[in-house]
């Protein structure tokens, strides 16, 4: 009997992983359950529900509606507005990613060294990130007002002409990009700062001995060693840009003349303003698949970067 | 070692406390469906009156609260247009909509089927509100099958606000409440030219949101005899030549001196309120804004006149009607319903709303001495008879996709981003696409 | 290593003066860099400063053109008007309720799940883990239509739960916490197991205290995300009494009509909370970004 006890104790000491052998449900499952229930209910179920609804003419006001097979999908592929808004999303991504990455790096490089009031500089760059989108767009739509806005006031003060920032298709998207850059650069900035601080200073010392100047150090040491951070920032930035909605909806409402409307706002217009949840679901689903493909490619690129070593 | 033990105990207690607090909070939230901040047993009322008339509506709400302190009235104003209607629909779909809401009669088709509850005519009659108290044209729009789905509150239209001193200086003021006769587009354009000389600034203040652009367009297009027909499952029918005529007229107006296409709603109202702009074309609901400005600064000295008949013999003008509706609820409580009906009847009978510039729909009030004596409201009272509502379709109405699409095209044409022909093509394509879409109601 | 002993003293001294990477720039270069950084900072602060300035003006002077910084008098009347109206306070309260609930629930559920994935394997757990990780790629916004339909069916539209629950399941946090727990040495837990402690007790009394930094980072980021979340609360709440701060401000703009000073005042009130949070938790936030961004993927 004593031997059995010892054996049992040894067993539980060397195999501490699953709880008591007598329990039917593994402890791990209990720990996971709260998260997983919510995860299934509010992430997995919608994925399949969305697919399901997209085959019906579900309306906001009524129930499931009639079954229409692939009609919604056929309609969305022929719908110009789908491709226009998809293109707007891509345009937004292409325009906003470079400043958000490059300027963040510049800010990090500038404020990495000790300097007077550095905490204030850092706070200035990061603070907009803490502010909710409504405040951001309230402030910037106020800045961009054609008739009595601050930006136009400054432009005219230096002799330039007023610009109709939010009213012309050409400048509207640029205004959105400026606003977004101001708002979200803080996060990339922090990542770059952290990345810079991880670079061992001996590398710079060593290269200085070899006679490298600041520019050489930048291109041969700093940039390559920031590769991983840059890759991370790019991935996060692309994902965030593709699902843009908030600031465009609040700044221009997708206008002027739908020239800034991103795909998610078209989904909103179709599904909630236009009541056609079934159709909106089909569009969402196609967009979802596009993002999955993107993400898949990015993961592949990322892991191959890891594999190729630093 | 012992300090670590103490640490550990503190943390586990903290952990339990945290968990417990979360749990308690959760059960508390789980019970009530509504906000923790405002109590139950109330009449919730949503409206979209953010303009000058919003001030009057707030006065009416306060008057009601004073007269009936036992009823908890909770009023909210949401942004006009698509945001309001989308929110109303989503709330009604969710079954937690407000007891009473405002809706334009032109938007009723989308909501009447599934998102609204019908009125109980007997209960209404208890508060002295009967169908025969309303103009038949409004009643038609408000009735579905044999059920009354909306109670009309007013008829509202667009007018010309006239700055008396400036307009008189240009010799265009025939009397304190009327302009000289302008009966053609050329008359109007030369009048604007004279006014911009006198004022030294833009002659006509405007607004460039899609709704206002639509209204100004529709008024003259109807005057010219044009129409827009939206047959379900077919293609849009409209008069391209007349449309071009009106578009080119407005392009001549938006030449930067007579009027500016970049002027938005807020800027236009501010420009007229400052007393610097001779004319403003906008809805009658901005009346209180200028009354307030007059009280505070003495400016502007103004009146309101109907839009002149420039393109045809009759002064046809855009108009719509605000009505009160009962959004769908999972379950209706008779007590709350009674309070809601009482509130509705009080709004109908309150002349303050006419002070907001609107023409009352409730005939006992519209034909009363009190109202008939109001100036400048009586100047444009006749608009209710020549009212031109939006062409009927499930996607049409105030702030609808119809107005949005046409308004966007107008915006682009007046900004010279598109030619009138391109604008009309864009409008036509958008209408046909909407007509082909299966109606979700 | 031997190289350091051959670097001339003056250069080594210069190198030690800097706390960052030793990019050797002459004094002029450093001054220029500071000026550039300061210019950028001014640009970045400008919009908020301008909005703040506007909020302190009397209403009639907000639309003066060309714009001026100094009005005839500074006044806080816009703030008192906004606060008197009360809506902003209701939204603020809702934001506090929602953000706190989301943060507490997210941290708890993610920590439990992360711990299980790290220490408590069972048959089939790998599949569950793979499903969890797959969810990281799914951007939440794309699922709003079916999610709303689900809320309609569950009758949770316009309820606190409707706002809170979809925000709680956070596969990213589970992932981050799992990696953190993986890196914790197992000896303490194993010793406690030998003593007969249950996994539950071990979790609370041993693992949690050791995890304070990562828990702090997760909490703060979750709180910030929940506070600033717009799209989902925007969709699921139509009743203005339930709206969180960002949503209420956007929907009920016309409460303030065209009174720009009040609009800016409301915006300033909404901006303050998280800035305060940042000032108090600066270090954890910065460290959290570093850990999450660089310690894992």
Automatic annotation (TrEMBL), chain A:
User: Where is the chain membrane-spanning?
Assistant: 29-56, 92-111, 123-144, 172-194, 225-245, 277-297
A GO biological process of this protein is:
transmembrane transport
What does the UniProt entry say about where the protein is found? Cell membrane
How does this protein lie in the membrane?
Multi-pass membrane protein
**The organism's place on the tree of life at top rank:** Bacteria
- Where the record annotates domain ABC transmembrane type-1, the positions are 86-298
Looking up SUPFAM superfamilies in the UniProt record yields:
MetI-like
Any idea which UniProt keywords this protein has?
Cell membrane, Membrane, Transmembrane, Transmembrane helix, Transport
Report the CDD domains cross-referenced here: TM_PBP2
For whether the record's keyword set contains Cell membrane, the answer is yes
Q: What is its main location?
A: membrane
Report whether Cell membrane shows up as a keyword of the record.
yes
Any GO CC annotation of this UniProt entry? plasma membrane
**What family does the entry list?**
Belongs to the binding-protein-dependent transport system permease family.
Instruction: Please report the name of this protein according to its UniProt entry.
Output: Carbohydrate ABC transporter membrane protein 1 (CUT1 family)
Q: Give the organism the record lists.
A: Thermasporomyces composti
Automatic annotation (TrEMBL), chain C:
Does the keyword Transmembrane feature in the UniProt annotation? yes
Going by the UniProt record, its keywords in alphabetical order are: Cell membrane, Membrane, Transmembrane, Transmembrane helix, Transport
Where primarily located?
A: membrane
Q: Name one GO cellular component term.
A: plasma membrane
Q: Which residues form the ABC transmembrane type-1 domain?
A: 92-281
Pfam families documented for this protein = BPD_transp_1
Q: Please state where this protein is localized.
A: Cell membrane
Instruction: Spell out the coiled coil positions from the record.
Output: none
Q: Does the keyword Kinase apply?
A: no
Annotated TM spans: 31-52, 89-115, 127-148, 160-177, 214-235, 260-281
Q: Which InterPro entries match?
A: MetI-like, MetI-like_sf
Q: Which SUPFAM superfamilies match?
A: MetI-like
Q: Taxonomically, which superkingdom?
A: Bacteria
One GO BP annotation is: transmembrane transport
Please give, as recorded in its UniProt entry, the membrane topology of this protein: Multi-pass membrane protein
Q: Which family is annotated?
A: Belongs to the binding-protein-dependent transport system permease family.
- Which PANTHER family does the record associate with it? ABC TRANSPORTER PERMEASE PROTEIN MG189-RELATED, ABC TRANSPORTER PERMEASE PROTEIN MG189-RELATED-RELATED
Q: Which named protein is this?
A: Carbohydrate ABC transporter membrane protein 2 (CUT1 family)
Origin species, per record, is Thermasporomyces composti
């Amino acid at each position: 009997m004593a031997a059995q006890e010892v054996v049992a104790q040894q067993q539980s000491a060397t195999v501490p992983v699953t709880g008591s052998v007598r329990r039917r449900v593994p402890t791990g499952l209990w720990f996971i359950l709260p998260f997983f229930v919510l995860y299934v209910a509010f992430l997995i179920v919608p994925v399949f529900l969305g697919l399901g609804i997209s085959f019906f003419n579900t309306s906001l006001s009524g129930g499931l509606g009639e079954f229409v097979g692939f009609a919604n999908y056929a309609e969305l592929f022929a719908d110009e507005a789908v491709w226009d808004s998809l293109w707007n999303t891509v345009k937004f991504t292409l325009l906003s990613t470079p400043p958000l990455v490059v300027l963040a790096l510049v800010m990090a490089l500038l404020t990495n060294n000790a300097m007077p009031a550095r905490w204030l500089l850092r706070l200035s760059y990061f603070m907009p990130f803490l502010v909710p989108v409504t405040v951001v767009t309230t402030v910037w739509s106020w800045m961009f007002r054609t008739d009595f806005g601050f930006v136009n006031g400054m432009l005219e003060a230096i002799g330039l002409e007023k610009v109709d920032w939010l009213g012309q298709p050409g400048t509207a998207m640029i205004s959105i990009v400026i606003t977004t850059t101001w708002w979200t650069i803080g996060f990339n900035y922090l990542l770059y700062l952290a990345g810079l601080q991880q670079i061992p200073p001996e590398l710079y010392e060593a290269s200085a001995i070899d006679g490298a100047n600041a520019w050489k150090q930048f291109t041969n040491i700093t940039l390559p060693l920031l590769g991983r951070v840059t890759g991370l920032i790019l991935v996060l930035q692309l994902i965030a840009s593709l699902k843009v909605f908030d600031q465009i909806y609040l700044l221009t409402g997708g206008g002027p003349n739908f020239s800034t409307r991103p795909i998610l706002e078209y989904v909103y217009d179709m599904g909630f303003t236009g009541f056609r949840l079934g159709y909106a679901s089909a569009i969402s689903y196609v967009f979802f698949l596009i993002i999955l493909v993107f993400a898949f490619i990015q993961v592949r690129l990322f892991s191959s970067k890891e594999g190729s070593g630093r | 070692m012992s300090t670590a033990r103490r640490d550990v105990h503190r943390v586990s207690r903290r952990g339990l406390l945290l968990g417990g607090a979360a749990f308690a909070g959760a059960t508390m939230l789980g019970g009530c469906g509504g906000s923790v901040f405002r109590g139950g047993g109330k009449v919730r009322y949503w409206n979209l009156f953010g303009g000058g008339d919003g001030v009057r509506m707030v006065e009416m709400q306060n008057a009601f609260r004073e007269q009936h302190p036992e009823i908890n009235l909770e009023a909210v104003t949401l942004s006009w247009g698509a945001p309001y209607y989308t929110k109303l629909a989503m709330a009604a779909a969710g079954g937690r909509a407000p007891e009473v809401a405002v809706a334009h009669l032109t938007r009723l088709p989308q909501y009447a089927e599934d998102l609204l509850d019908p009125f109980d005519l007997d209960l209404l009659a208890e508060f002295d509100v009967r169908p025969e108290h309303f103009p038949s044209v409004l009643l038609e729009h408000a009735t579905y099958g044999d059920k009354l789905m909306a109670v009309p509150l007013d008829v509202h239209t667009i007018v010309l606000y006239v700055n008396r001193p400036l307009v008189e200086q240009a010799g265009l003021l025939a009397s304190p409440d009327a302009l000289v006769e302008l009966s053609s587009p050329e008359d109007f354009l030369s009048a604007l030219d004279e006014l911009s000389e006198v004022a030294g600034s833009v002659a006509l203040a405007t607004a460039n949101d899609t709704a206002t652009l639509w209204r100004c367009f529709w008024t003259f297009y109807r005057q010219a005899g044009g129409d827009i027909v939206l047959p379900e499952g077919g293609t849009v029918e409209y008069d391209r030549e007349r449309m071009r005529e009106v578009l080119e007229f407005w392009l001549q107006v938006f030449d930067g001196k007579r009027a500016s296409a970049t002027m938005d709603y807020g800027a236009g109202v501010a420009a007229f309120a400052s007393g610097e702009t001779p004319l403003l074309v906008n809805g009658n609901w901005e009346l209180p804004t200028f009354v307030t400005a007059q009280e505070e600064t003495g400016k502007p000295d103004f009146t309101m006149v109907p839009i002149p008949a420039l393109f045809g013999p009759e002064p046809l003008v855009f108009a719509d009607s605000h009505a009160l509706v009962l959004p769908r609820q999972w379950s209706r409580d008779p007590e709350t319903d009674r309070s809601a009906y009482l509130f509705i009847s009080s709004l109908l009978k309150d002349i303050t709303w006419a002070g907001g510039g609107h023409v009352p729909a409730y005939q006992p009030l519209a034909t009363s001495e009190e109202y008939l004596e109001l100036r400048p409201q009586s100047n444009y009272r006749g608009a209710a008879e020549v009212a031109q509502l939006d062409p009927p379709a499930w996607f049409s109405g105030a702030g609808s996709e119809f107005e949005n699409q046409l308004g966007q095209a107008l915006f682009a044409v007046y900004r010279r981003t598109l030619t009138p022909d391109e604008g009309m093509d864009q409008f036509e394509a958008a209408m046909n696409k909407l007509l082909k879409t299966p109606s979700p109601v | 290593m031997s190289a350091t002993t051959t670097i001339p003293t003056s250069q080594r001294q210069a190198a030690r003066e800097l706390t960052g990477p030793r990019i050797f720039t002459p004094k002029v270069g450093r001054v220029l860099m500071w000026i550039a950084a300061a210019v950028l900072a001014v640009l970045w602060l400008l919009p908020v400063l301008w909005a703040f300035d506007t909020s302190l003006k009397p209403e009639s002077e907000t639309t003066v053109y060309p714009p001026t910084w100094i009005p005839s008098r500074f006044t806080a009347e816009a703030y008192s008007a906004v606060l008197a109206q009360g809506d902003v306070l209701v939204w603020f309260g809702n934001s506090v309720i929602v953000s706190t609930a989301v943060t507490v629930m997210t941290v708890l559920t993610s920590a439990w799940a992360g711990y299980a994935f790290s220490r408590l394997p069972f048959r089939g757990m790998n599949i569950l883990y793979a499903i969890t990780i797959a969810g990281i790629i799914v951007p939440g916004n794309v699922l709003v239509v079916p999610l709303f339909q689900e809320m309609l069916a569950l009758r949770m539209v316009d309820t606190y739960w409707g706002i809170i629950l979809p925000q709680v399941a956070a596969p990213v946090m589970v992932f981050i916490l799992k990696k953190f727990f993986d890196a914790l040495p197992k000896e303490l837990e194993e010793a406690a197991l030998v003593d007969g402690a249950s996994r539950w007790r071990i979790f609370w009394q041993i693992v949690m205290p050791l995890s304070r930094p990562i828990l702090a980072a997760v909490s703060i980021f979750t709180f910030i995300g929940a506070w600033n979340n717009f799209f989902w609360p925007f969709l699921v709440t139509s009743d203005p009494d339930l709206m969180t701060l960002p949503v209420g401000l956007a929907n009920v703009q016309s409460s303030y009509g065209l009174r720009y000073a009040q609009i800016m005042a409301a915006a300033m009130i909404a901006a303050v909370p998280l800035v305060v949070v940042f000032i108090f938790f600066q270090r954890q936030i910065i460290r959290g970004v570093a850990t999450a961004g660089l310690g894992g993927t």
